[in-house]
Amino acid sequence: MSQYFSIHPDNPQHRLIAQAAEIVRRGGVIVYPTDSVYAIGCHIGDKQALERVRNIRRVDKNHNFTLLCRDLSELANYAKVDNSDFRILKAQTPGPFTFILPASSEVPRRLMHPKRKTVGIRVPDSPIAQALLAELGEPMMSVTLIMPGDEYPLTDPYDIRQTLEAHVDAIIDGGYCGLEPTTVVDMTGDQPELMRQGMGDFSVI
Q: Torsions phi, psi of 127, nearest 5?
């Protein structure tokens, strides 16, 4: 049975955020809200937790996970970015974008695209997600909360609890989230390339 935290979406209670972060540190899997949709997250270095997330989503080892970062100061540890690309990222973060970048040697292999050696980086504009990342002090592995066979993410915390309370260690109720995931932008070529249109406005890039 998972723990259930009702956290204010604009002013997250630190005590509850600290409890959720400790669950992640201990290898737990959590559901939490972002500025786009609800997501499932776990510790960046925990292989067993990652496998649990894969089982919940029923995705294979080739499915791309995202590194959820508090800000771009963590970027250099996990991705290779030139000055022009960094300016684009800085202008659009935090926000509803996932940027595909060349992975550094610090990225666990299980997080990389197996052939391209890339990694998805995301800086969410969400007080709850930001507070959680600040408490952790490091990025978190993350993937959109879309259940097998569903077309859209789960948005209602009550539905999430009914569906997943026996499968995850904690659920953060931050109110309703949207249905639209992030816009995914591939930054590995000469020009940014739109991979998936979501909440973010690609035209500004």
A: -55, -40
